[in-house]
Amino acid sequence: AEPAGRTYAFHTHHRAQLFQIVRGSLRLETERGYFIIPPERAVFVPSGVLHEVTYLQETERSYLFFRPDAVASLSPEVSVIGTTQLLRELILAFLEIPRADAGSLRAERLVAVILDQLQTSPVAPLSLPLPASERLRDIAADMRNEPGADWPLDELASRAAMSPRSFQRHFQSETGMSFRAWRQQAKLLKSVEWLAGGRSVGDIAFALGYSGPSAFIAVFRAAFGASPGKYFQDTPLKL
């Protein structure tokens, strides 16, 4: 298991990587965005992508590496996916193969089925795009660190030396999301992180600035298709 707080600073791999989280959670950040990977999810990182990994709780995980040509049909972007019971069992079966037999026919067949599962696995909405410019990126970092704080648009725009309208236009241009939608997604990712760590729904709701648990649950359900209390249960709805 990886201890809480352990960070692997920005690095790349010459092979594609698949992290599967069994228990705990991690945060993965790239130059273009950041991702939260809670239990029973996995993150696919294409080869050559610069990324940093931080374990948010004590975390049990497994991972596989793939040759770039083997995953050419998969997304060229980092993506968080929901893992089915079948995919989890396939990964475990592959990891039980001795290293000396990694090129065996059985191993090749398992890899083929794993890749087929990855192609059809739903992408989980657990990512947040980051602005490209330094001034907006710094502001985004502060909002990520304190998602429940009051962030008046006028003050943020002034900090970026822009008018409020210009600030919103630049923010959407650089992230692909409206400022309001981005803030809500930042809150949702923080809530998933806290839920994975065992924090209560009521505590999370108030920490993120919602009027109460009901308001938070409604927003969470609209985003993820399940209530916070059921999000980590092994059901077809869960991503």
From N to C, what is the helix and strand string? EEEEEEEEHHEHHHHHH
* Count of the separate structural domains: 2
Strand content: 15-25%
Strand order of the largest sheet: 1-6-3-4-9
- CATH fold-level label of the largest domain: Jelly Rolls
Sheet bearing the most strands, described? 5 strands, antiparallel
| Category by helix and strand content | alpha+beta
Q: Give the second-level CATH assignment, the architecture of the largest domain.
A: Sandwich
Give a quick rundown of the structure.
The chain has helices at residues 85-95, 105-120, 134-145, 153-159, 164-175, 179-196, 201-207, 213-224; strands at 7-11, 16-23, 26-30, 33-37, 41-45, 51-55, 60-66, 79-82, 127-129. By secondary structure, it is an alpha+beta fold. The chain has 2 domains: 7-120, Sandwich (Jelly Rolls); 131-224, Homeodomain-like (Arc Repressor Mutant, subunit A, Orthogonal Bundle).
Protein architecture, described:
By secondary structure, the chain is an alpha+beta fold. The protein folds into 2 domains: 7-120, Regulatory protein AraC (Jelly Rolls, Sandwich); 131-224, Arc Repressor Mutant, subunit A (Orthogonal Bundle). The protein contains 8 helices and 9 strands. The strands form 2 sheets. The protein has a 5-stranded antiparallel β-sheet, with helices on one face. The protein has a 4-stranded antiparallel β-sheet with strand order 7-2-5-8, covered by helices on one side. Helix 1 runs antiparallel to helix 2 (105-120), helix 4 (153-159) crosses helix 5 and helix 7 (201-207) crosses helix 8. The chain is globular, with a radius of gyration of 19 Å. The protein starts with 6 loop residues before the first strand and ends in a 15-residue tail after the last helix. Residues 234-239 have low confidence and may be disordered.
